[in-house]
Amino acid sequence: MADDIYVGNANVDALAERGWLLGHFMPDGDARHSTDVEIKWGVHPPGDERAEWVRGERRTALLVLISGRFRVEVPGRSVLLEKQGDYVVWGHGVDHSWVAEEESVVLTVRWPSVPGYKVGAEPEGERP
Questions:
Q1: Does 127 have pLDDT greater than 60?
Q2: Per its UniProt entry, which superkingdom is the organism in (predicted)?
């Protein structure tokens, strides 16, 4: 029953998986393993940005600003999150990128949890 519960700290645990706390990439049997959803605690220094746009998105995503100033780029639109609690949702087929305009903390929830979105070439089944 102990494997059904996990207690941690997002700032600490996020370091091991590039911010990701829950998803398909966690070990089978770990309470944080899920093919239904992914959760990320993103801590971004000023100027941090996604090196390449995500293209051919097959997931829905919710990104919530915890602190800072964070910009999400989607085709034809730039969304600025600047007040705690500001959020943006996008769905299947929406390409996107982002940049931290100030030191920022964001919580991202994506569903379903599927492999294949790491910056650069990545074979199916690799980590996020």
A1: no
A2: Bacteria
64, β-bridge pairs: 87, 107
Number of Cβ within 10 Å of residue 7's Cβ equals 5
Q: Is 122 among the domain residues?
A: no
Q: Is residue 2 pLDDT above 70, yes or no?
A: no
d(CA 116, CA 127): 8
What is the per-residue pLDDT for 126? 38
Reference 2, options 37, 29, 38, 39; nearest CA is 29
Domain that holds residue 64: 2-111
CATH of the domain at 21: 2.60.120.10
pTM of the model: 0.85
Q: How many domains does the chain have?
A: 1
